[in-house]
Each structure stands twice: as structure tokens, then as C-alpha cells.
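Session log. Operator J.P. requested a structure for one protein chain; no other inputs attached. Running the standard single-chain path with C-alpha cell output.
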Amino acid sequence: MNKKTLLSIALAASAPLAMAQVESTTTTTTTTEGTGTITEYSPGSTIVLKESSGPRHYRVGKRVVYETKGGKTISEDEVRTRIKVGAPVHVYYSKEGDEMVVNRVIVDEE
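Structure written below.
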């Protein structure tokens, strides 16, 4: 066999291996907690908490879970009456660029 034939056989044998390679990407999201009293709230948009370090602005995520401190999920109707200025809450958020996006709110009152 000549060099051209050997090279062709080697390339043909390695082609399926090259095509079988899979590329994957891993994304890590870190969730952080904030605690304070609501000073401003715009449903589906923003929530501002008075925290020990001062006021902190958060963006409300598209899918936010609202709960009591006992773990009971708060219905949409209850959210309208319980998530308001003056309510003490814990928020769980992740950073998206420069914004802190809330994905979970826990009301400190049962």
C-alpha cells in the first residue's frame, strides 16, 4: 500500500470518532438571600427592601414563588394583599448582569 492509501484509510477510520464528539456547556447560578422590609413594590417589576445596609433594589423574576416562613405557598390572590409596603420579607435572588433578580419571596409573617 502506498502512503496515499494509508492516509485515506486512517482518515476514514477516524471520521466517526470526530463526529461523535459532543460539546457541552455548564451554567452555574448562585442564589443569594436578602432580608428587609418592603419600601416599594411593583408586581412583576421591582421590589425595594429597606435592609440593614440601606435600600436595595431588586428586579422581580418572571417565575417567583411566594411563601410563608412555614413553607406554605401563597396564592396569587394572597400575594396582592400580603406583599406590600411594610411587610418584612426574605428574598432569594440571582445576579443577571448588574441586576439582582428575585425568584423566591418568603413573608416573615404566617
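Operator note: The mean pLDDT is 84.
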